[in-house]
């Protein structure tokens, strides 16, 4: 997961193997995968879920993998009792924003300067929310 995450992200910075291992040990955290092409990592706490990260290999994009992973995340979150899903996305990541918007996510807030680009520039995070059926 760390290798794929590094191939997909520089902002936010890629997560390490240690960080993924630590997250996977936490209560309520779950993983959806599409082989080696992608994964979604989420968690459920009470009646809310959070998409922690979604990564699709650059060479596998535009094939519906991200949408399938998002569907899997939402299904697992709902099965675990979540009635709403939240996520954060870079204000500069338009392709991810489009995916989330087509899946019914709507703007719920903004975290000013939440991410730091490799150049040191601060980038806002958009908080998106969707009710789960």
In short:
By secondary structure, the chain is α+β, with helices and mostly antiparallel strands. The protein has helices at residues 2-8, 17-24, 65-79, 94-102, and strands at 29-33, 38-45, 48-56, 84-90, 106-116, 122-131. The chain is globular, with a radius of gyration of 14 Å.
SSE diagram, text form:
Layout: H1 2-8, H2 17-24, E1 29-33, E2 38-45, E3 48-56, H3 65-79, E4 84-90, H4 94-102, E5 106-116, E6 122-131
Parallel strand pairs: 3-4
Antiparallel strand pairs: 1-2, 2-3, 4-6, 5-6
Gross morphology is: globular
How many strands in all?
A: 6
Number of helices: 4
Strand order of the largest sheet: 1-2-3-4-6-5
The assigned structural class equals alpha+beta
Major β-sheet annotation: 6 strands, mixed
Measured on Cα atoms, how large is the radius of gyration? 14 Å
Low-confidence parts: none
Query: What is the residue-mean pLDDT, rounded to a whole number?
Result: 96
User: Percent of residues in beta strands?
Assistant: 35-45%
Termini Cα gap:
29 Å
Helix percent band: 25-40%
Return the string of H and E elements. HHEEEHEHEE
């Amino acid at each position: 997961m760390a290798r794929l995450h590094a191939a997909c992200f520089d902002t936010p910075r890629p997560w390490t193997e240690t960080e993924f291992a630590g997250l996977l040990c936490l209560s309520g955290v779950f993983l959806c995968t599409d082989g080696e092409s992608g994964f979604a990592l989420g968690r459920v706490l009470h009646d809310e879920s959070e998409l922690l990260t979604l990564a699709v290999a650059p060479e596998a994009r535009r094939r519906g993998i991200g949408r399938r992973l998002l569907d899997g995340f939402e299904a697992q979150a709902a099965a675990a009792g979540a009635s709403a899903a939240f996520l954060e996305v870079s204000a500069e990541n338009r392709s991810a924003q489009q995916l989330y918007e087509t899946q019914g996510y709507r703007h719920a807030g903004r975290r000013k300067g939440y991410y730091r680009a490799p150049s040191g520039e601060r980038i806002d995070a958009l908080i998106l929310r969707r009710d789960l059926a």
